[in-house]
Amino acid sequence: MAQENSIQDNATENIEGESHEQPVQQGEQAQQAQAPQQAQTEHEPLTVTYERLRHTDDAALLHDFATRQLPDRKDQSAFSRATALLEAVAGNAHTLLEDRIFLAQTMPFPNILVKLSQDSDWQVRQAVAANSNDKNWLVGRLTKDEREEVRAAALLNPQTSWKMRMEGAEDSSNTAQTLDYLSRFGVDEDMQGPAVLTAMIRRAVALNPSTAQETLERLAQDTDESVRHAVEERMGQ
Question: Which of 33, 125, 127, 231 could in theory staple to 104 by disulfide, Cβ–Cβ 3.0 to 4.6 A?
Fold first, then answer.
């Protein structure tokens, strides 16, 4: 009888032990299932991972790569690999919109920004246009975008060249608000530049038919004679 009780006690302990161990094992399995495929991608050729990220429709995997912290620049190999893979993520239409905007706002790397500057969603292109890490040739391209919001962001970007600003000042498809901004080059303390170039921009704004009356009235008092004459010409005086 004592032996039977001992057997039953042992059986109960085994059952209780299994009931405690099983959830732990299931929890570990769930964690492994949810973990990103980082181990796999770290040991396969770059081109293989790049092509997988470029063509996958797995938004969760793309999100993981888009938001993953970049390796230290001192580890040049790992850093170069990570930025190359972000280019694939940036060019994949299945990458979440908020992730594409995040990359467009934060990345300083031309290969990634070029991909995003061609995005079908104007909000992504606008974020690229406003990124002060842009190269001037890239932000210059976005001053010609079909969306006014993108053009405006590009023209306000400090990396925009004087040539692009001049063309923006002449473009009647730009809004009165954007033209007012351009009319302040060479006048406002934080918007200085070569006097000849800034005066040419203000003159172009004065002649632009989309310029608001309020802006014209201010330009009529400009210190540069050519700008004042442009306002008179525009007003038919």
Answer: 127
Q: pLDDT tens digits for 180-236?
A: 999 999 888 778 889 999 999 999 999 999 999 999 999 999 999 999 999 998 887
The structure's pTM equals 0.76
Alpha-carbon span 98 to 95, nearest angstrom: 8
Give DSSP secondary structure letters for 21-81: HHHHHHHHHHHHHHS-THHHHHTS-HHHHHHHHHH---HHHHHHHHHSPPPPTTSHHHHHH
Residue 23 has pLDDT above 60, yes or no: no
Please, is 185 exposed, middle or buried when counting C-beta atoms within 10 Å of its C-beta (0-12, 13-18, 19+)?
buried
> Helix (H) and strand (E) counts for the chain?
15, 0
Backbone angles phi, psi at 124, to 5 degrees: -70, -45
Tokens coding 163: 């040539």
